[in-house]
């Protein structure tokens, strides 16, 4: 019995060393430029840019396959930040991908909701809570306003409402926003 325990321990130690060596020497490095671009994107995961989410869009920009003006939720602020990071000239938002809208929040009319779960499946950030044949609700702090939950709803019980700025959600404008509005410098 003792010989079996010692043999298994030795085998585990050898496999541990081999895996540790492989992790260090075969480590896959990410694209640091794509990481910086991804950090500037709004992380709505809405797909309006024609990519599956913000990370694939960032990788496409880093490879030169996508332009910097395809993100409606990010708007002019994101375009200016991407242009500055990449050393490119800013350009207006590409109308093919949508228009800049105020921050919106999905709201479900719980009396009309039939519990079909189609909106839950469509939400890219898991901001809708509910179960089959039960009413659903939106977690306001998680909703990005991407509107992807609207088309699959068979009873049209979801509507988008603008997010009102209050003490909890108000933020200082970025210096880029102030400069573009003419209120800075």
User: Which series of helices and strands comes N to C?
Assistant: HHHHEHEEEH
Mean pLDDT: 87
Query: Biggest sheet, strands in spatial order?
Result: 1-4
- Any idea of the CATH class of the domain at 32-97? Mainly Alpha
CATH-assigned homologous superfamily of the domain at 32-97 = Electron transport complex subunit B, putative Fe-S cluster
Characterization of this structure:
This protein is mainly α. Among the domains are: 32-97, Orthogonal Bundle (3-methyladenine DNA Glycosylase II, Chain A, domain 3), CATH 1.10.15; 102-163, Alpha-Beta Plaits, CATH 3.30.70. The chain is built from 6 helices and 4 strands; from the N terminus they run ααααβαβββα. Strands 1-4 form a two-stranded antiparallel sheet. It has a two-stranded antiparallel ribbon with strand order 2-3. β2 and β3 form a beta hairpin. α2 crosses α3 (54-63). The longest helix is centred in the N-terminal third of the chain and has 24 residues, at 2-25. It is flat and about 70 Å long.
What's a concise summary of this model?
With 185 residues, the chain is mainly α. It has helices spanning 2-25, 32-40, 54-63, 75-86, 118-122, 175-181; strands at residues 104-108, 128-129, 137-138, 158-162. The strands form two sheets. Strands 1-4 form a two-stranded antiparallel sheet. Strands 2-3 form a two-stranded antiparallel ribbon.
Descriptive terms for the model:
3-methyladenine DNA Glycosylase II, Chain A, domain 3, Alpha-Beta Plaits, 185 residues, single chain, mainly alpha, flat, two-stranded antiparallel sheet, 4 strands, two-stranded antiparallel ribbon
């Amino acid at each position: 019995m003792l010989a079996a325990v010692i043999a298994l321990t030795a085998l585990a130690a050898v496999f541990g060393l081999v895996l540790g060596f492989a992790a260090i020497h075969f480590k896959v490095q990410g694209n640091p430029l794509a990481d910086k671009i991804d950090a500037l994107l709004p992380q709505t995961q809405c797909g309006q840019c024609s990519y599956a989410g913000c990370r694939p869009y960032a990788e496409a920009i880093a490879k030169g396959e996508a332009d910097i003006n395809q993100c409606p939720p990010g708007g002019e602020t994101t375009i200016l930040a991407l242009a500055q990071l990449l050393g490119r000239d800013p350009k207006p938002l590409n109308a093919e991908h949508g228009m800049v809208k105020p921050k919106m929040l999905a709201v479900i009319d719980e009396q009309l909701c039939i519990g079909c779960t189609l909106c839950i499946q469509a939400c890219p950030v898991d901001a809708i809570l509910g179960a089959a044949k039960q009413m659903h609700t939106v977690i306001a702090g998680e909703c990005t306003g991407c509107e992807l939950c609207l088309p699959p709803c068979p009873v049209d019980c979801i509507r988008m409402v603008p997010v009102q700025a209050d003490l909890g959600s108000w933020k200082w404008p970025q210096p880029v926003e102030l400069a573009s509005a003419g209120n800075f410098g």
